[in-house]
Amino acid sequence: MGAAFPVDGRGGSSVGDRIRPLDGSARPAERRTSRNGSVSTVNLEPLFGSHPPARTTIIDSLDYWASQYPDQDAFLATDVESFEIRISYEALRRKSRAIARVLVEKGLVGERVLLLYPAERPLEFVAGFLGCLTAGAVAIPAYPPRRNRNMKRILAISDDASARAALTVTETIERLGSMLDEAQALGDLDWIATDDLIGGPDEPRLVDLSPEQLAFLQYTSGSTGSPKGVMLTHANTIHNVSLITHAFRMSRTGSGVFWLPTYHDMGLVGGVLKPLFFGRPNVLMSPFTFLAKPIRWLKAISKYRGTVSGGPNFAYDLCVQKIPHEEMEGIDLSTWDVAFNGAEPVRRDTIQNFTQKFSQYGFRANAMYPCYGMAESTLIVTGKPKSRTPTILAVHGPELNEHRVNVVDCTAPFAQELASSGVVLPEEDVLIVDPETHAPLPSEKVGEIWIHSASVGVGYWNKPEITEHVFRARRSDGHGPYLRSGDLGFMYDDELYVTGRIKDLIIVRGVNRYPQDIELTVEKATSRIQPGGVAAFAVDIQGQERLVVVAEVERKRSDDWSDVVQAVRRDVARDYDLPPDAVVLVRFGSIPTTSSGKIQRHACRQEFLEGTLKVVAQWTVWDQESTMAVSLPAPQPGGASNGEASRAIHPIVAAKVLEQVRAVAKERGRHVTLDTNIVLDLGLDSLERLQIAAALEDVFGGRFPEDVLGQIETCREVAEAIERHMGTTPRGQRPTETSDHDMTPRPANYAPADEDCRFDKLSEYKRLKLQMRQIEAAGAVNPYFQAHDGLTRDTTIIRGRRMRSFASYNYVGMSGDPVVSRAAKEAIDRYGTSVSASRLVSGEKTIHRELETAIAGLIGVPDSIVFVGGHSTNESTIGHLFRSGDLILHDALAHNSIIQGATLSGARRRAFPHNDWRTLDQILHDVRHAYHRVLIAIEGVYSMDGDFPELPRFLDVKRRHRVFLMVDEAHSMGTMGARGRGIAEHFGIDPNDVDIWMGTLSKSFGSCGGYIAGCKELVEYLKYTAPGFVYSVGIPPANAAAALASLRQLEKCPERVARLQHNAVRFLTRARERGLDTGLGQGTPVVPIIIGNSMRALELSQRLFARGINVLPILYPAVEEKAARLRFFITACHSDEQIDETVDAVAEELAAIRPHPSGNGATPAGRASAEREVASR
């Protein structure tokens, strides 16, 4: 094993040399690190119990948890609504080691490596970050550039760090292609795609790590011109995550929910490193997911029972402003123990408003957790005692402005209420110091916040002078060293109150911007602005931080300054993704300056607030009746911002996009067109843009892929993305044909996007491959599409090995029955292998009518019609019988074919709770009058859960409201009733009371196809008009004969049904006796064993396979994660011995899988069942 490099001194000395006692003497060696190599000695034993943490490096922590709980989820990535991807500790260790191996082979040990992962791929980021650390490389988290917009910042970071390589995913490298050609310094990096790197079980660690070794550079958000990368060691990291664990009083059953970007200190340290250290799973979401629809954050906390989550102050404000109470239905926030609030000033009103609004949904006031920290101290410095509600202190406002603290009653004149940032955490020393004299200040004075802690980084990379000033400050009496935070504050009753900044740093939504950078951009925006005459600062307007730009203009008289305002807003938005909220143009020479001519931002800010600036023209976003109407310049003809020819946009889509843009942009959007750039022309910030996206998602009933959200800027690009990913029809409107006259002319040089004409670029295919890679990363074999050789009854043959089979619908053993096989062969000899066309065209064979007559007789209705496939039977029948103006009500667990048929019909589709006839009755009472035809669709046996409905109750509802009732008997025909005649026989009802009986021929009838049975009028209408029958080939003669022979065998041998029912009850009973969770099972041949974790269900399936038992897992997203399961199909062919031995094997192998510390293992989750089924029939 090689050795990685320690801190090389380019920005500072090692941790051991830098951390000293406050009396200035040398720190004893034994105090520098504890026995296990960590600089933290915080007692965490009460929190870990019998699970002691590795307190050396994060990589040691990962190795520890991977060895103790290899299959436990380490992280889960989700957008809450459409996907969920998990990675276990073992899979994460393998992948990170595979990445490390590549880095080592490329000679990158000790070198700086950029991490440029898109926000929607957090699991890839985590693996890439850990891969860097495992290899002894220095990780540099950053956000990948888009459209050259933040290319300047990435270039500056790469240059400052002398980066050698960049890790990302394949799609990002492809997207950046031409941009890298234009930015040679980035193009020269070694670009490595990590998404296809998967390590094996024996992947070794190749590099030795030490706590004092440099782990990563944390570049603070802010200045583009002179980026500063904080050097953080493994020891810094371990110390800080130990403090967070102690402060939050973490629980071994808790979990986190994070939407914060992983390249930000709060998202990286809090959302990735702390969970890895503590060994509890963490849910990761993209910032886009939250910002577009804040409700998703709270949904995630509720869904995943999150205990720790949070963000900057603005996030809580956004929830209060954007989440209506209707969206909170069913959301439970009672598990949320720590709602941390930091990265920007914490406001008393925010705490109060959020708590007041969401307390009715379980949020507790003492969960709100104001805290303080920064990248230079890894993350946390102070935090609220967990059990207390946040402390609010009222002080005299005017005196606070003079840096004096006078505590007053909150009702006193000029009272200003401040939220405490909590108490100083163990092993930390926080002082309030006079920034000029470096003398400690008493509690009644405001001063600079200084910090002494083992969490404080080594310094800024390659900036020794700034490092000396910031990281090695000493008090006036020589004690130190301390980190100078640059923040102002005071201590009162041992709690820290942050009041501002020494320098004019602009902090909006938790992100830092440096005013000098913005001012330089403004100066260059137009020649009409006076060089050196610009001030940028932040003000609090209507409870929000606002960016204000004040600029001196040329001396020429003018009545129109709109071009200047527009240029300023456009250029600032382009460079910093933050358009100014106010642009104030003032007279030449009127901005306050020092005697040396330096702009006084504080004085300028004060004059702005007092209204004493000598204003020439002014525009403010919060005042729609501004002193100057700013007109948007007409877009240049020729269209799209990328310089390529534009394609025609569907007029409905175009109208909806422009409508939503105008609604958000207000007066800024008066002249908006499809070629308007939302960012540059309108100056909309990221939240406003995501607000537009969310509104359009609601209009069209779809989702923008997150990688697309980061790329679209013009209205045309938004419209194109809608057409590509959501279609052209707003939700609730029936699609209409667009005539040639409605289309705009084809643009010159038009070419469709790759994802519109290449299957390998389809977003849906990419997501499938991502899920498949997740299975491979877990070290599992894909359990699907196994090749079987020979007949499948109670056993099957896979890869030459005879296996006990519980994955077949051959319920009563008709497939392979000699009588059935002989009938099929005879039919081939008599009729041939195909009917060669639809029965309407080529005529039908006598075997077809014999089969349909027999099916109708078995059920007890006048007639039936046979279709060539089961899924198409439902699609074609439902889609044909119902239309716009009708209503289809289906069980929440209805098969996909029912849902597809309902969608095809154009009728309104609505699900009712599973098997809940009472709610169905109430729905019909409320809405029946608003529709023409109404269909209730239920199933005889639900194929995911093995339960069945109370059919007589549904018949009562049908009669009461005069609607149609359809029963899908795919899994109940041949399995229910004394003679296998289905659910009607089971309940003893007249089959003619049900309007539509549906069934399939592939299960109890040993063949293939589907049927509809009912009255003669229904069958005759379908026979002449149903597209899936009229325009489809008829069922092959051999299949018809096999089904007919099976049906006759069933009538002759009712003991098969009895044997099947005996076996089903025996399996269910034995499983429950062994403590297995059988969900909703009711003694049908479908028996679920609920595992509650997809990866564990997959492992259990493979363990059983090794023991000669073939049963498939049902994983997320086919079912909810908590309902992940194995699904056993019982047949009449199984013996008692096979059943008993199989149940024993399941219980033994499930017990052999290590217990899941989260409690997400084989606990009774059975009442929560699948929301949808993807298994085909």
What are the main properties of this structure?
single chain, 1177 residues, alpha/beta, Rossmann fold, GMP Synthetase, Chain A, domain 3, Non-ribosomal Peptide Synthetase Peptidyl Carrier Protein, Chain A, 5 domains, 9-stranded mixed beta sheet, 43 strands, elongated
Shape: elongated
Count of distinct strands = 43
> How do the strands line up in the largest sheet?
3-2-12-11-13-14-15-16-19
- Global structural class: alpha/beta
Can you tell me the CATH architecture of the largest domain?
3-Layer(aba) Sandwich
Count of individual domains = 5
CATH topology of the largest domain: Rossmann fold
Q: Kindly report the oligomeric state of this protein.
A: single chain
Largest beta-sheet characterization: 9 strands, mixed
Number of helices: 40
Measured by DSSP, the beta-strand proportion falls in 15-25%
Rg estimate, integer Å: 34 Å
Mean of all residue-level pLDDT scores: 86
Binned, the helix content reads 25-40%
Quick one: CATH class of the largest domain?
Answer: Alpha Beta
pLDDT < 50 stretches = 1-39, 624-645, 1155-1177
Our measurement of the CA-to-CA distance between the termini, rounded to an integer number of angstroms, reads: 54 Å
